[in-house]
């Protein structure tokens, strides 16, 4: 039986993917040139992996030689819950409140791939959840899921920008979606709200100044003094540019996925983090995105919030 867009969408919806789009596998000349200019300005900070495997970012056929299509998928993770802003606590970005989304979405992608292969054994794919050399935001835009916001997150008309993205590169041909319009208009709410001025221009982020980078990917022992008193209590990640976005204020919907419907790590006690040992850290965060910062990084963040 031949696969169709409708079959893929139906199977993906059964697995709790909220948005599905299809794009032709094409060479990303323009997008990779923009990436190179961004890298030349050192806006990637210490994330050296961003400068590697450019040939795979350019052409997904360097990942799957017979690639014809890229299926983009999105899952809503928004929870209609606010921070207490209690003194002595650090805020955690919403995406990291519960279990690591990579573990959850990888499992769903494997199930989806198996379902599609059972319908047509000739179906082949390689799938990613922002861990491989694939330009996931670019493909989400090309597949019509949403547009690139000025804060460099993909915004959708249905759910705003509180989404996880995944891609399946496949040897199959489908009917392809058209990219949708950019609905940011003249709005600069995200740019104006960033306390560290990390959004240096529309659609351009300098990771060196980004609270999310500084608290997660940054492997240094210290956070630069210039950012003192600018973190607004963020201990892991930051959601400010998304919180102020009018699209999120108007269209965010609580997610229906029980795996993302938890707030056990919404806020962390700074004192508890500072006194935590490696065993305690592993036990609490082994299946959480917070594990990426490692105990050393989390303690550095906690100390910085006490300065």
**Number of domain modules:** 2
End-to-end separation = 63 Å
| Secondary-structure element order, N to C | HEHHEEHEHEEEHEEHEHHEHHH
- Main structural class: alpha+beta
Radius of gyration, taken over Cα atoms and rounded to an integer in Å: 20 Å
Strand percentage: 5-15%
Number of strands: 11
In this structure, how is the largest beta sheet organized? 4 strands, antiparallel
Explain this structure.
With 307 residues, this protein is of the alpha+beta class. It has two domains: 150 residues, no CATH class; 109 residues, no CATH class. 33% of the residues lie in helices and 15% in strands. It contains twelve helices and eleven strands. A four-stranded antiparallel β-sheet has the order 1-2-7-4, with helices on both faces. A three-stranded mixed β-sheet has the order 10-3-11. Strands 5-6 form a two-stranded antiparallel ribbon. The longest helix is centred in the middle third of the chain and has 19 residues. It starts with a helix and ends with a helix.
